[in-house]
Amino acid sequence: MLKQYLQFKLSQKLSPQQIQLMKLIQLPTQAFEQRLKEELEENPALESGKETTDELDDDFDNLGDDFNDTDSINADDINVDEYLSDDEIPDYRMQANNYSIDDEEKSVPYASGISFTEYLLTQLNTYRLDSEEKQIAVFLVGSVDEGGYIRRSIEDIMDDLAFTQNVFTTEEKIQEILKIVQQLDPAGVAASDLQECLLLQLVRKEQTPNVELATNIIAKAFDQFSKKHYKKLLHKFDVTEIQLKDAILEIERLNPRPGSSYSGNTRIIEHIVPDFTITINEGELELTLNGRNAPELHVSREYNNMLKGYKESKDKSKSQKDAVVFIKQKLDSAKWFIEAIKQRQQTLYVTMSSIMHYQKEYFLSGDERKLKPMILKDIADEIEMDVSTVSRVANSKYVDTPYGTKLIKEFFSESMKNDQGEDVSTREIKKILETVIEEEYKKKPLTDEKLAKLLKEKGYPIARRTVAKYREQLDIPVARLRKQI
After folding, report:
1. Helix, strand counts (H, E) of the chain
2. In the chain, what are the domains?
3. DSSP reduced 3-state for 298
4. Residue 230 contacts by C-beta under 8 Å, 6 or more apart in sequence?
5. Half-sphere exposure for 28 (CA within 13 Å, toward CB)
6. What does the pLDDT average to over 374-389?
7. For position 481, what pLDDT does the model report?
8. What global pTM score does this model have?
């Protein structure tokens, strides 16, 4: 049975403008510049550069007097969502004949060159292979990943050759062709695992006593070598510590990812553009916002003239009124965008200024041990903004400091109590832990239990499992793998 009833509900909804403002705040400098460029292209009422808008504001405010009740322009007549959509691309941007030879080319040029696979295929042409062998060799080269390995089994490759290339062969034949492919440069390419990759490289080196010992270690005791069981290696191969050390040095010179040394050369280098700059002037911190985040924008003067023409016109036709509706839509959007840019600038500056003063001791000294415990809520409460707003500023922005360019979110950390009951940053503890490990005796590295004991002596009573967690976050291996001979 159907029933009708009334229900009162209180809810909060973000307007399209608020959503776009949050998106603008989250953008780093380079992405913001691209978004600004798109807005300038999509909205003809928005222009860059200095321009007074007083006259335009007067004309725009008085425009409503020229409409009667039936013809007036309401806010509902303007589809803000449609205008703010990122999917709207003007037709002229899809054309290829709108480029002038006077235009400045600002795009980053791509590095020329051939791919890693093409590089291998070019070398393959120097070998004499029949039609079937060439097909197998090309297929094997195509199976090499970016690191330079073939991670598939010979059986899988044989099945794929039969189903996709109509080449019916044997595992022995594939192994024979694989040995040819493994002779290509760089050394170690087309190996199935790290052990084979290192052996392929050692075989090509001049066979000195050190290289021969290194080859035997990789071939016969790879597991013991990878786990750094040096005493077992000394006993197994009956060599001195100096001989073992020289052999290990030969292994360390090898490339565990032969493909990456070539494929990485054609990648575009990404440059970080800092959003803020902090300098020290006579013992005081100074914060500046990157000028690229503060563009000069104004409303188009041509649109102002259009409004004037309509205002002075005695006979207002339907087409003129439709044109004014369009103009008002673009003017509203342009004015809102200009205001949003100003709000973005203010939000970024206020947030970073608060962070800078909160971590003043660090920015004056550069010593990470002076970083205070700081969470998003600390800054949000201080600047009276929402935690999500602070998070948007911190997650994707960089600041140029006298000690290098830093990601802002790195200044945030949880707190822990030291032996005096004071709150200290977990970043401070990690820095001390890192220093202790760097200074340890490498022939006998400190275990997590011993590290916890040392930190406790320094005034930081933390558990062994916490030491293990911080060590993993610092990407430092366990004691056994830090051992050196």
Report:
1. 23, 8
2. 116-263 (no CATH), 415-485 (1.10.10.60)
3. strand
4. 244, 483, 485
5. 14
6. 88
7. 75
8. 0.53
